[in-house]
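Standup notes, structure subgroup. Blocker cleared on the 2-acetamido-2-deoxy-beta-D-glucopyranose input:
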Amino acid sequence: MKSSISFGFLLILVLPLILASAQDGKYERAAYHDNYEGAVQKDQDYEGQYQDQEKGPAKYDKNYEKERMPAQNDQHDDQGEEEDYHGPSLEIPTLLDNLPSDDLLSFGYYSKSCPKAESIINKHVTKWVEEDRTLAASLLRLHFHDCAVHGCDGSILLNHEGSERKAEASKSLRGFEVIDAIKAEMEKECPRTVSCADILTAASRDATVLLGGPYWDVPYGRKDGKVSNDKDAELVPMGRENITTLIEFYQSNGLNVLDLVALSGAHTIGRATCGSLQYRLYNYAGTGRQDESLDYRYANFLKRKCRWASEYVDLDATTPRTFDNVYYKNLQDKMGLLHTDQSLYSDSRTSPIVDALADAPSDFFSHQFAVSMTKLGNILVPAVQDGGEIRTKCYSVNSNY
Ligand code: HEM
Ligand SMILES: *[C@@H]1O[C@H](CO)[C@@H](O)[C@H](O)[C@H]1NC(C)=O
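Run returned:
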């Protein structure tokens, strides 16, 4: 409590500094990161930028990290986020508005049947992410791909011929082995009790916290679906859609425009394969040029980085390892990696929200992200839940024999 209050106070003190120094230095940080990765930085524009703006940004990052620490620690063991939130407030829904509205989910769901469920999940996620930090983002994405198709029902985890997971659109999804490892221990501790959909939901929350993102309480009671079709995997947005399509897709899942913008903020961490964006770099939409909505120096950087479609590139070009709102600042600077990211800033229905999340302290984004993630995790299709089961292995449905 105490550290959170002083954190809020400090935030007010450093806010003008953060906002002022956030105005410049994006390329410098990108360049720094690129060098950090071991890649050789050759672009003259980048070099120039790097030297012109030597002072501000380093300071920005340093202050930023320093002030964030207490909040992170606080959030890990304190779940009373509403009371403790001292940042600026806009009119947004609170976590309390997002309690599961039906009777399917509840917070104490496993308190008697499997009291260790959450700690087992947390133990495994922590161990795997310590060994390979990139898995955290992958788990978060896996949860989105699960919930985006007939609700959070673990259908993405099924590994049979013709399943969502086997679809071309799912080929860069990762993290399945983490879920399988958790499930194996869970079955020993409390057999046939904890669903794979619940495990994936909690794992993506824990992964977010490990990355420095917010904590939120997860209600439980999801059932695992028995159906998974590769065609359905193509329903999940891939990055080329227009905003109307995205809004409609979110709406069909009970999510609104604010949720769309806030959840896209997950791209503050993680990577894309170059295959997802190369089409923006050359002959975009038959123009013979690169996508005009892409900053040209950033585009040059991407051209160097993306010689192969299988190469990885950070979704957040400036602070790829920090769970922060810099993703939105990148959009203001025409540095959204995916076309859908950048479109959030060119469409009048979403751009004011991008500005709000970019210009407020990062904590404001964290808070809204937790709110929207709770909604994402609560997407359930009643018919799927009615016909659902508790799988004993997350990669296959239970057999009837
Ligand atoms: C607005 C709709 C969205 C679109 C069009 C989209 C698209 C994409 C694409 C194309 C990639 C890169 C895939 C690749 O090339 O390998 C990606 C990665 C990622 N997405 Fe999204 N996404 C969307 C929403 C979300 C949401 C709602 C979340 C989570 C809450 C999310 C979390 C992630 C993460 C964490 C990664 C990085 C994964 C990794 O590093 O393994 N995305 N997304
Ligand atoms: C958005 O994309 C959909 C599907 O491709 C298309 O039917 C629609 O006309 C597009 N809308 C706009 C405003 O471009």
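Discussed briefly. Residues 1-99 have pLDDT under 50 and may be disordered.
Next: hand off to the docking folks.
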